[in-house]
């Protein structure tokens, strides 16, 4: 029997950030900086996988999308604007309430739910899970649960910090140490490197299709890169 993926302390930590999730200068400021970079990769993968028109404003029209660990909707809202029928799932009820309120203010219809991934029913053309797997109790069970939600021919996109000393330094020592990210957000022991991720995917019947690094530099800020040392984002499909 698969175990629960939610770690209560993690849900409480992120739930405590709900009050200013949409403030680009608040506790989630780093996510606001990260989101455009992730969206660049996601849009490219959508266009390739679904053979969509790269100039279309509704590339996900007629498709369903599930954003796992959706927070208060930083990714779910752009997916809805691309035309998808979006479901957002998060472990923290406080974040789901904030997400519902923000989406209503934007005139967006998104099905937000609080709870465990393994209790969710249905399948989705696109499943996204960004900066989440490093916070779950059982990564292997979690990836298997993601696979179960993927519709035939579906696309999975995930991102996570790499398990490197560079990632530990920038993410925990520097960013958390300087207050750019709330202290206690990350546990280096939970970081997963790309080879270990491929093994998790393979055990669930999935294969990694394309991977890009998310790097940081004084000149470019956060940006897509061949350098995977800090963070990486990837697409996957059934093998």
From TrEMBL:
Single GO biological process annotation from the record: methylation
Binding site for S-adenosyl-L-methionine: 38, 69, 90, 130
Pathway connected to this protein: Cofactor biosynthesis; ubiquinone biosynthesis
GO molecular function, one term: 2-polyprenyl-6-hydroxyphenol methylase activity
Pfam families: Methyltransf_23 (PF13489)
Keyword annotations: Methyltransferase, S-adenosyl-L-methionine, Transferase, Ubiquinone biosynthesis
NCBIfam families, per database record: UbiG
Family: Belongs to the methyltransferase superfamily. UbiG/COQ3 family.
Name of the featured protein: Ubiquinone biosynthesis O-methyltransferase
Organism listed in the record: Sphingomicrobium clamense
């Amino acid at each position: 029997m698969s175990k629960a993926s939610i770690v209560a302390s993690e849900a409480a930590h992120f739930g405590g950030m709900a009050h200013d999730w949409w403030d680009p200068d608040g506790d989630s400021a780093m996510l606001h900086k990260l989101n455009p970079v992730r969206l660049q990769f996601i849009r490219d993968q959508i266009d390739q996988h679904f053979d969509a028109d790269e100039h279309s404003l509704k590339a996900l029209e007629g498709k369903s999308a599930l954003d796992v660990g959706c927070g208060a909707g930083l990714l779910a809202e752009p997916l809805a604007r691309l035309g998808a029928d979006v479901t957002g799932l998060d472990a923290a009820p406080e974040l789901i309430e904030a997400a519902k309120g923000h989406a209503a203010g934007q005139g967006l219809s998104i099905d937000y739910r609080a709870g465990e991934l393994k209790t969710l029913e249905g399948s989705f053309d696109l499943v996204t899970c960004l900066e989440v797997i490093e916070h779950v109790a059982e990564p292997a069970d979690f990836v298997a649960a993601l696979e179960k939600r993927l519709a035939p021919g579906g696309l999975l996109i995930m991102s996570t910090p790499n398990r490197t000393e560079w990632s530990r330094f920038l993410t925990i020592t520097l960013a958390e140490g300087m207050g750019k990210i709330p202290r206690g957000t990350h546990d280096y022991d939970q970081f997963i490197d790309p080879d270990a991720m491929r093994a998790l995917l393979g055990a669930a019947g999935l294969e990694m299709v394309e991977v890009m690094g998310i790097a940081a530099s004084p000149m470019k800020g956060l940006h897509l890169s061949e350098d995977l040392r800090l963070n990486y984002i990837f697409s996957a499909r059934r093998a």
